[in-house]
Amino acid sequence: MSRIKEIFGILFGGRLIVEGTGRTFVKAPVWLAVLAALSSVRLAVITVLLVVAFGMKARIVKA
Amino acid sequence: MMNKHIRMMIDEIFADMKMTADNLALRDELLANAQERYEDAIAGGRTEDEAFIEVAASLGDVQALLEEMNAAAEAEKPETAQAKEHEDTEAAAQEDAGEEAGETAAGEASQQEEKAEGPIPGTTDLGDALNKAFAALEGFGQSIMPEAKKFVRQVDEATGGMIKEISRAAQKGIKDAQKAAEEAIDKLSGDKGELVFDFGAKQPAQQAKDKAGEAETLRTQAKDLRAQAELKAVIGDAEGADELRAQADTLDMRADAIDQAKAMEEMRRAAEQAAQDAAEQDAAEQNEAPAQPLVDESGEIDEEAFADAVEKMAREAEDAAQQAQEAEYTVRDADEPVSGAKRFPAAGLRTVEIQLDADDVHIGVASGNEIVTLWEAENVDGEPVVTRSGHTLSVCRKNPDVFKTFFSVFKKAGGSITVLVPRGYAADYRISTTSGDVFVTGVDAGDMKITTTSGSVRVEPDAQIRTGDIGVTTVSGHATVSACADDIAVTTVSGDQFISCDAHKVDVNVVSGRVHVEGACDEWEVEAVSSDVELLCTVAPTKKVQISSVHSTVRLALPSEIRGFVVEKGSAISCEIVNEFGPNRYGTCALPIRMETVSGKLMITRL
To answer: How far is the C-alpha of B440 from the C-alpha of B462, rounded, in Å?
Structure first.
């Protein structure tokens, strides 16, 4: 139960930030990012690959 | 009695119609005509029933006509056409009331022809239609909002405040979610306050390099603080100066500690390497075959053994020569970072050209009489190529690649190169990087042109010698220029600028970064879009101050002893000028301060 609470808490109360070198590329609520990823899985996969390939930093911070 | 029946019949006809003013007037007129027709029939000798049937028959035609017209009006909508139809209908009704049924059909046909001729297809004004549509939507929105609020209130009251409860619950849910997120993130990250997925994990060697860079950064910050302390001391703020000096000392101590830790680490590695080498050498000596004696048992020289010995000596000498030749290049490992050094004679040096991607560039002063280049790269491919051709020293990538150059914007961790030039050689510098930082410190320089995309630039040539023109261009990197030069032009897009100078002209171009310029210049030019610009003129400008902005805030601080100036504003929509000196035409000197802006703000203050 606590795990589910954590997941939902991060989903609706967290903010996703993807930072490159010197600039921020994504700054959005986690639920919005998840929704966007679900709406276009291919785009999400490409984005993740680029993030990993360029060694960017993804952070989830408190909203 | 029959009159009552006629009225009821007409009311029935109009029962499904919207009760507009036109329709009401039409109904009254139709009623009057029907009664008149009924009375005429009675006067003509008909019985009451016959007269009523006659009137009812004529009204039946009118009813069919009205229904058709209503349907057409619903389809077309435009009010003007609807009014026209009402008028036509009225005319037709009047005709129908007075004429035979056949004539009514003819009137209907003629009316339909008119309708067909009215709006010509394809000539509808789209703008008007959209205007009407938006007006209708706006009206609908305005009319529906109070109703909607009222409805929500009613539903809320009817359900015993359930809507408010739901709203409160939603707000509470959001707060709970945020609280749960904070707890979850704290729990998962170990109270760091954020979950970090770093896909650019640094190698140990990179960390070591970062440490060195950190030490250097700390020393640079300490130097800045000392410079600021000197300024404060000149102003008379002794306490502030002491505080800044103390901060600078602290930073220096931290930098020394980092350097010491790095030196200890290197010593430890060197000791480990030496122990390993010694062990390998011992093992090799044990495995080595015993040398063949050069003299045989009879006391004569063994030619074969002698030839082998000579060949071995030649091979060793060749290896030694090879090692001596490659001594300047230190290759640690195939996958390890690579470093190297090269020296060139400084005589005749006129130009230094550096064109790199993610590598940081340091230009400094050499202690001897040679140009020294030192570099560190991530791997062999990343090594720069350093050449001296004629009067030009060139540093460029080993394998220039447009693709790599473009994508190096995203890559901050490259290598670094340090070029040390002896004093007295005022060469021109042309440096270009993509994401590498550029530092120029203490050198004698002619013209300097530095271009980066996301790298930061710091230009601090020898302040005792006037440098030529300095041009710095970055997109998102910060630019710091502290120099005594002819002309200084700094252009950034989103990078901040800090310029401290003694120059003939300073030209600042910025889009959204913050700008701080201070010093003594004859001429100041600022072009900004939406940034905060601060110009501190320690000496009154002698030529002009030109400021062009879209909606930037510019603070221009002039020395109190300035003889005068004239403030002009051109092509401004809402330019606000706040002048601490008082009038915009101040004093006896007509130094032009021109502000061209859209909605910017200019504050002129005393320094």
So the answer is: 10
